[in-house]
Structure formats: C-alpha cells, structure tokens
Amino acid sequence: MRCNRREKVFGPGRAGPLDRNAKARIAIYARAWSTRNRHPRQHRGPITRAFMEVLKALLWGFHNAHTGVCFPSYEAIAARAECARSTVAELKALEWAGVLTWQNRITRIRERCTDLFGRHGWRWRVIRTSNAYVFTDPLQGSGGPFSCKSENPTGTQNQEILDPVLAPAPNPNSPLERALARFGTALGGKDCIE
C-alpha cells in the first residue's frame, strides 16, 4: 500500500478566507456527511462528537476570517475543544468528509553542535512547527448540496474569497467511499486489513 505524503511548507501555508455563513455551512455539512455515512453500531458516524468539537474550535476559535490563516498547535486545539491531544492528531474523518485539509509547516533553526574533533560550530536543522489548516466551503462546488437561488452573492459585503477550494461531489463508486465503507466495517468489530 502506497503512503501519500503530506505537503510541507515554510511560512503560514495556504489560506482560505471564510465568512460566518461559510463556517456554518462547513459545520452543518460535516454533521450531515457523518450522518449519511453512519454504519450500524456507530452512534454519530465517522465524525464523532470530539471531532466535531475540534472542527468547531478550528473554525470559530483559531481561523482568521479575513486572512484565512489557521495554524494552531495540537495542544491549543485540544485545550479549546476539551479533548485529548491524540484526538486532534487523528483528523482523517474530517479530511474524508472533504471539509478540512492541512499542510505540515516547517521552519529552519540554527543550533550549536560539536563535531567529531570536539570543535564547536553551528548547523541548520529543519523542524516541524504546526499544521496549516484549510477549510472547504461546500457552497463553492457548482450545484452542490447547498445551492442558493438568490441572485445576490453569498457572504458579507467587502469580503473577497481569494482561493476557493471545490468540494468533491459524493460518488458511491469512488475509492474514497469504498475505503470509508471498509473503515466503518473495521470499526464495527470486523478485521479489514489489506
């Protein structure tokens, strides 16, 4: 099985400005997607209560609506969502739902070191800092689940959507939907190892 590598970036990473309505649509879509993909013996579906609290913390607590940047640490997210750090580290269900994606942020640091001969010197090292989170507004997709009949543009006045990200249309025959079905089966107590 091939492992997909997460993109690594220096600096703040990608940003996607969102207004209040877009944030509400994302939360509602995540809840609806989880309900639609619920399997037997699952209380709320793949997106659990803790994941919804993490999404709420990211959307309403850390995301800057004007600039679109969102890069809090796992510890800060866990404190705001009142959950464990390990829960924050496992956000795949929100990515599968198509509402959230992230990049690994990295930076260079200079540190003092000693070489093999005992001489002191300096070296550069690259370390990970935090993730840059980007949200996908379900309305940005054409004819998506939230179509608007108004001739007026959505959002607030004086706010531009700089980099819209399209949400994928649900397809029951897609590899993602099949993988989610296998994931739900594995959570149901059956082994699903390929």
Short note summarizing the structure:
The chain has helices at 20-36, 49-62, 74-81, 85-89, 92-96, 175-187; strands at 8-10, 100-114, 120-135.
Describe the structure using short key phrases.
3-stranded mixed beta sheet, alpha+beta, 194 residues, 6 helices
Write the layout of secondary structure elements.
Layout: E1 8-10, H1 20-36, H2 49-62, H3 74-81, H4 85-89, H5 92-96, E2 100-114, E3 120-135, H6 175-187
Parallel strand pairs: 1-2
Antiparallel strand pairs: 2-3
Describe this structure in words.
The longest helix is centred in the first third of the chain and has 17 residues, at 20-36. The chain has helices at residues 20-36, 49-62, 74-81, 85-89, 92-96, 175-187; strands at 8-10, 100-114, 120-135. Mean pLDDT is 76; it is low at 142-151 and 156-163. It is an alpha+beta fold and 194 residues long. It is globular, with a radius of gyration of 20 Å.
What fraction of the residues are assigned to beta strands by DSSP? Answer: 15-25%
Shape: globular
State the helix count.
6
Structural class: alpha+beta
User: Low-confidence segments, ≥5 residues, pLDDT <50?
Assistant: 142-151, 156-163
Percent of residues in helices = 25-40%
Q: What is the H/E order?
A: EHHHHHEEH
Characterize the largest beta sheet: strand count, sense, and whether it forms a barrel.
3 strands, mixed
The total count of strands amounts to 3
**Global Rg:** 20 Å
Through-space gap between termini: 8 Å
- The overall pLDDT average reads 76
Strand arrangement in the largest pleated sheet: 1-2-3
